[in-house]
């Protein structure tokens, strides 16, 4: 039997007073997800190890059965893979945001979701002014870019994820060395950040954005550094051929290291305006040549980071109707389906947290458990209970 995993990124949440103590998953109109939960089996999955990085790379590694304590080497290396940037074993790849700083604080980690064209111009200007044969900047999607440090630098530094620290002073968030070998790298990254501000504030792209009342992308922010990991391919581990569908380079890069085919969808943005229908159609098409399809949607996570409750609920409902519903209507064969967030992104916290996420696994012909709806509380009563590690992917594929 073939398999699909649907990742509704960051959709899980904490109870919210404005919702009468319910969560967005509890109040959202999501008949397709709830129907699968009722027909399938549910539980909770611990995707983030205790006292560990709470990023999406860690969570998605866990879901696919890769131990993040072994295989997580920063999200920069994953995004490099998705961008086609070849890394040597000594290279350090670093995720690099273009963000908005105001009054010496992070105002907006995405510079108002700046366009690809605008942001690429800014990164190219930074590369021209600050790059050299050992420091190279690569433009990515919207505010998400890549910095590669060659040869003499270390990944042994602590960098703060900007989406977790909006409104905080940048002076308290600068890069710190974890050890002696990381001191040179920390000093370089801090210098690049501070030097970028003078360049970007005067750039025509930002001058125009300010005139239009938009947030300028007036600083770069490097974070999540790492070196190239060695991972066994998913097909080698489980004997099935996979494909990944996502707008996010992080997830595409993870798919590449896992040996998946990357399927790009026109109009897939990583935001609430993504092409849900296009992803659904791509998923159906991918099943013709693949045994396993990993479909990732970022929208609810971005709404959580913004603290936008209404938008988060809408993202969940769009996922249910426009993506999952469309796939279910067009399946040509019995398929095993799983639905889950990779982590929680509570709207009140506006950052990732490490609590377990609800999940469902529907296998045609198998009897379901007693769960009636898909949400954080209902799934606690599912027959899978609380699991972690590779037990999720094992349960799905067995």
Overview of the structural elements:
The protein contains 14 helices and 15 strands. Strand 5 and strand 6 form a beta hairpin. The mean pLDDT is 95. It has 398 residues and is of the alpha/beta class. Helix content is 35%, strand content 21%. It folds into two domains: 239 residues, Alkaline Phosphatase, subunit A (3-Layer(aba) Sandwich), CATH 3.40.720.10; 143 residues, no CATH class. The N and C termini lie close together (10 Å). The strands form three sheets. An eight-stranded mixed sheet has the order 11-10-12-1-13-14-2-15, sandwiched between helices. Strands 3, 4, 5, 6 and 9 form a five-stranded antiparallel sheet that branches. The protein has a two-stranded antiparallel ribbon with strand order 7-8. Helix 6 packs across helix 7, helix 11 runs parallel beside helix 13 and helix 12 packs antiparallel against helix 13.
CATH architecture of the largest domain: 3-Layer(aba) Sandwich
Tally of individual helices: 14
The SS-based structural class is alpha/beta
Number of strands: 15
Distance between the termini: 10 Å
- Major sheet summary line: 8 strands, mixed
Shape verdict: globular
Any key phrases for this structure?
398 residues, alpha/beta, eight-stranded mixed sheet, 21% strand, Alkaline Phosphatase, subunit A, five-stranded antiparallel sheet, globular, 2 domains, 14 helices, 15 strands
